[in-house]
Amino acid sequence: MKKQARFPGSAFLLALLTTVCLSGCHACQAQQQESGTKDGYTYKSPSSGGTGKVYMGREIAAIMTATGGNWLDRDTRQEEENSTRTIANMNLQPNTVVADIGAGTGFYTFQIAPKVPEGKVYAVEVQDRFIKTLESRREKEGATHVTVVKGDSMQVNLSAGAIDIALMVDVYHELAYPMEILRSIHQALKPDGKLLLLEYKAEDPDVRIRALHKMTKEQIRKELEANGFRLQRQEDFLPIQHFMLFEKVEEAGG
After folding, report:
1. Is the predicted pLDDT of residue 66 greater than 80, yes or no?
2. Based on the domain organization, do 86 and 203 belong to the same domain?
């Protein structure tokens, strides 16, 4: 009894120290996640139109849902973006294999398809409504060499070494897992494969697009060069978008 009386708070103190230690460990884990040490991303309160998830200093934009399909097929899109000139500068050959990543309603997919009659076009999408639209349009146009592929947030779901060139048009800034998707594309490209990125020009205040849906050349290079790509060519002929062509140079990192 005397022994118990001498240390009346020992059990409480032990419990308190255990709680403090566990709390400290949880705080450390939370701090690790906040600093991105676990997965390469950091997190904050979302901005307007953002996800709160940050990669290399850039907040990832919230994805445009399939309800925005009409905007993708707007009558003014060719004039605004000059997609014809983009495709002409992809240096496509009749047997080129192309992957349109984030194909949407197929605005680029079905302009590219006639250029590669002996090749193939993979229209990669994650949203089911767009998948149905792509499949319906393929049947309607008789584009038998177009294959619709269901991707996901971390994989493009294409075979290794299958494609000559991947195209992402105003898509990259919305990728929830840019590192993982770049790694997946890297794997799907042939050894001399290319990745063409079109993104709205953040440097130009006259481009009336929400800030998180635009990117600077510097930011694009920083992110892609960290993931096994090297800028091969960039052009300024598009009215509102960057045209940046990257080549596969090494094993994609993380």
Report:
1. no
2. yes
In three-state secondary structure terms, 149 is strand
Question: Residue 46 carries which side chain, given as an amino acid letter?
Answer: P
- Residues 8-29: tens digit of each pLDDT: 343 333 333 333 333 343 333 3
Question: What is the pTM for the complete model shown?
Answer: 0.82
Dist. CA 112–CA 88, nearest whole Å: 9
As a whole number of angstroms, the distance between CA 62 and CA 51 comes to: 5
Count of the separate structural domains present in the chain: 2
Domain check: are 170 and 131 in the same one? yes
Q: How far is it, in rounded angstroms, from Cα 168 to Cα 158?
A: 15
Q: From residue 33, give the alpha-carbon distance in Å to each of 40, 163, 173.
A: 9, 35, 21
Torsional sign, CA 212, 88, 132, 125:
negative
Q: Which residues pair with 163 in a beta bridge?
A: 189
User: Which residue from 185, 224, 189, 223 is spatially nearest to 102, judged by alpha carbons?
Assistant: 185
| Structural domain harbouring 230 | 64-248
Cα 47 to chain center, whole Å?
Answer: 18
Which residues, including other chains, have CB under 8 Å from residue 235's CB and lie 6 or more apart?
89, 243
Give the residue from 129, 116, 125 showing the smallest Cα distance to 70.
129
Residues facing residue 50 across a β-bridge: 61
Q: What is the per-residue pLDDT across 120-174, written as a single tens digit (0 to 9) for each?
A: 999 999 999 999 999 999 999 999 999 999 999 999 999 999 999 999 999 999 9
